[in-house]
Structures are given as C-alpha cells and as structure tokens.
Design brief:
The chain crosses the membrane at residues 7-24, 36-56, 68-89, 101-120, 243-270. The chain contains 9 helices and no strands. By secondary structure, it is mostly helical. It is elongated and about 95 Å long.
Amino acid sequence: MRSVHRATVLFWLVAVAAFVFLIWNSWQTWLANGEPAIVTGYTLAGLMVFLFIFNWRKKLSMVPLGRSAYWTMAHAVFGTLTIAVFFVHTGSFWPNGVYEQVLAVFFYLASLSGILGYWMQRVIPRRLTENGLEVIWERIPYEVAEIRNRAEAIVVESAEKTASDTLPRFYAETLSWYFRRPRYLVSHFFGFQSGRAFIRRETAAISRYLDETERGYLGELEELAHIKNRLDFAWAVNGAAKIWLLFHVPMAAGVLVLMVWHIILVHVYLL
C-alpha cells in the first residue's frame, strides 16, 4: 500500500512538473513568434495515446508490465493532466468550429465518464465486500428466480397450514412486485438503503395482523427478501461497471480518431 502511495506522489509530481514546463515552453514559443498550439496540441495527443494504452494493458494482464494499481493511478493522474492541457490548448471551454465542437463533446464525455469510472473503482469493490455476497453477475437473474420460487412456496404452505389468506394477499399485493426482478437499482448504486427500508416497513406493517404461525412464515419471507436485496445491490453496481466500460472506451476511441483527423487538417491548413 505504501508503494502505491509513493507511486501516486511521484506521478503527481511528474504531472505538475510537466504542466509547468509546458506552460513555460508555450510562452517561450509565443515570444519567438511561434505557434504554441502546435506544442500543446502534440502534448495533448501524446497524453491521449498514453491513456488509451491503459485499455490494452488490462487485456495483457498476463504480461509483466507493472502492477495494475500503478497503471490505474497513472491513468487517473495523467487523465487529470490531459484535461488541464486541453483547456490550455483550446483556450476556452467551448471551441469555435463545428468539427472542434464535436471533438470537444467526445472529449468531455470521455473525461466525465473517466472521473465516474475512477470513483466507481475506488468505491464499488469495498461496497461489494461489505455486501458479503459473492455471485457471478450473469447468474443473478437465476438466483432471483430461485428465491422467488422459494418465497411462493412459503406463501402456499402458509395458506395450507393456517387457512388464512392474510399473508398470501400481502405477498400478492406487495412482495410479488419486489421478488419479480431486481429493484431499487439507482438507490443501490448510490449507496442508499431503499430496498432494506421497503422490506422492514412492509413486513412491520403486516406483522400486527398475523398470528404466531403466520409470523414465522413472514420471517422466512423477510429473510429471503434481504438476501434478494443483496443480490439487487450486486446486480446494480456490477451492471453499472459493465455499462460504464461500454461507454467510456468508445468515447475515448472516438476522441483518438477525431484527434488524428484534426492533426491532419491542421497540417494541411498550415501547408
């Protein structure tokens, strides 16, 4: 952990030093009647290529190219540097020209999704550990279906043993909706407890109308509901991570393609 911390400090020192040098070099270029945008532009292009290489580093995890934690931190630090260099290069938040504006949109989307991805990478693993339920994401719908079948079996048994329709009606009107599929996904993603609150509120409300035998069956339903709530959490956060990857990487690739064409146009114009 200390080595990662030292590497983080080193990366930030390098990034700050590089940014200061870039500003100084651009200023000297301007004093010499040169074009600072060429300097900042190629610096920006180099940084973007480096950031995109990170995606290939993840695909080559078996090759000894350094610890993944170092690459992740370098990606975050130099991604921040890239945003700063972008503003230095453009000189404004919203550039002139339709093509430049399209490039800016792709860049902003890639940057914002990158910031979100960094937050997710820092928060989600810890929250999954706290959730205490390890399950393959693709298996979750089957696990939910199995829990729903067990819940329905409990309700049927309750009706047969107690000759009361209170718990079956409660299940049909309230819990069947909850057990049907993953619920409260946005709440789970942001770390709220809407699912748990729903379970406690609804079971507490119906408990007063049940006898001791029915309360035993209700307790079994509540236990299944809490297990399903943990599955919902895993479905929400892992699903968000997969969706993020399908968004961030194409945005970054789009920036690279538009950047190459931008460089070609600039040199054609200068010639």
